[in-house]
Amino acid sequence: MEYKVKIDSFEGPLDLLLHLIQQLEIDIYDIPAAEITNQYLAYVNTMQQLELDVASEYLVMAATLIAMKSRSLLPDHSSEEDDYIEEEDPRDELARRLIEYKKYKEAAGRLHELEEERTKLYSRPPADQLFSSNAEGPLNVSIFDMLGAFQKMTRRKKLAVPPKATVRREELSVEKRMNVLKEKLAASKEPIRFDDLFDSSERNELVVSFLAILELMKQNEIIVSQKGNFADLYVTVGGNET
Hints:
Elements: H1 13-24, H2 33-49, H3 56-73, H4 90-119, H5 143-156, H6 174-187, E1 192-193, H7 203-218, E2 222-226, E3 233-237
Antiparallel strand pairs: 1-3, 2-3
Helix pairs in contact: 1-4, 2-3, 2-5, 6-7
């Protein structure tokens, strides 16, 4: 059984790298090749396990990072050869791309804020967004935060590298799971921890639950909030339910 979903909020590999750099508090001018490569590959692997539509540009960046990591592990012979020509550190080029991307992203964010201010002058509904910024927590939860939370949850369930899946005859429906999750959230007086929304340890059921949560966020029917970096995610009914 396959579950194919295309997530429009993936803004590209540079967006993922910026997320990792900010989360790990890494100096953008001194990127540790091994650590950032391992983290990046873990996210891409999670996307593939969830059978999300991973664009080829993510895989191209993965190959670039692997090459960069391999180069960093090679011994330095620059001092042994008089005629050695120093090559540019590939991390410098990556840092330049990230800085340029960050500038455009911040400018786009500012333009979006101005657009939202402008729309308040008219009586029209807000544009549909995958992840609403109406959560009460101090941090906005991104798709990468969701993937990171899913990684941690599967590791706790010892499913980070799942065994061969057993074929099951029972049909798993994202729509049905959405209804179950909405009922569970509506019945709770307190926000529910993200991990507690996953009742099963079966990989297929975990994937369906995760996709159901993403779809509910897309429809603005739930709010996912986080108190700080690396903190647990909490889910409440919101948006259309209010």
